[in-house]
């Protein structure tokens, strides 16, 4: 498949963030990453889908290579557009985290997207809810150790 992320687990190889997350939720449900409440579960899925389908793919290397010298401007515009909608949604769903006060799949998707926004020098001023949630998440040990800047395949210029 040659795609990242990829996870070799239980005799299979999975790629795509949400497929991996949902498999882990189904096979290793502690801690829960989807709320029991069906409305909150739908909100979590909506936010996660917005990030991984509506914002993130537009910054994939294959797309950015096609943009040439305009790749920074392209990425900034794509992220800003997606973050405008996300900020409005989070103003209605957020507690400590994206949906209420429990870490969810939506939060797992948010942190790497904020990392990308920082990488592409997006002004985060217009997104106070996104910024606040990201800051709170980065205080949690699981988010500290799994931060994109700490991964072994992170390019040197993006490492912490």
Which properties best describe this structure?
5% strand, 160 residues, two-stranded antiparallel sheet, mainly alpha, single chain, globular, 56% helix
Strand proportion, as a percent range, falls in 5-15%
Assembly state: single chain
User: How many strands, which pairing sense, and closed or not: the largest β-sheet?
Assistant: 2 strands, antiparallel
Tell me the number of strands.
2
Order of helices and strands: EEHHHHHHH
Structure description:
With 160 residues, this protein is mainly α. The protein contains 7 helices and 2 strands. The protein has helices at residues 17-27, 38-55, 61-67, 71-93, 105-119, 128-137, 141-145; strands at residues 6-9, 12-15. The chain has a two-stranded antiparallel ribbon with strand order 1-2. A hairpin with a 2-residue loop joins strand 1 (6-9) and strand 2 (12-15). The longest helix is centred in the middle third of the chain and has 23 residues, at 71-93. It is globular. The model has no long low-confidence stretch (mean pLDDT 90).
How do the helices and strands line up, and which of them pair or pack?
Elements: E1 6-9, E2 12-15, H1 17-27, H2 38-55, H3 61-67, H4 71-93, H5 105-119, H6 128-137, H7 141-145
Antiparallel strand pairs: 1-2
Helix pairs in contact: 2-4, 2-5, 3-4, 5-6
Short structural summary:
By secondary structure, this protein is mostly helical. The protein has helices at 17-27, 38-55, 61-67, 71-93, 105-119, 128-137, 141-145; strands at 6-9, 12-15. It is globular.
């Amino acid at each position: 498949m040659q795609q990242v992320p990829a996870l070799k687990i239980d005799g299979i190889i999975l790629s795509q963030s949400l497929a991996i997350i949902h498999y882990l939720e189904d096979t290793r449900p502690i801690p829960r990453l989807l709320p029991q409440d069906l409305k909150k579960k739908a909100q979590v899925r909506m936010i996660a889908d917005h990030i991984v389908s509506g914002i993130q793919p537009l910054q994939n290397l294959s797309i950015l290579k096609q943009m040439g010298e305009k790749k920074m401007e392209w990425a900034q515009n794509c992220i800003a557009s997606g973050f405008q909608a996300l900020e409005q949604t989070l103003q209605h769903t957020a507690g400590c985290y994206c949906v209420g006060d429990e870490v969810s799949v939506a939060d797992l998707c948010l942190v790497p997207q904020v990392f990308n926004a920082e990488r592409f020098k997006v002004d985060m001023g217009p997104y106070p809810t996104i910024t606040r949630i990201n800051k709170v998440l980065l205080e949690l040990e699981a988010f500290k150790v799994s931060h994109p800047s700490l991964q072994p395949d992170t390019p040197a210029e993006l490492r912490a």
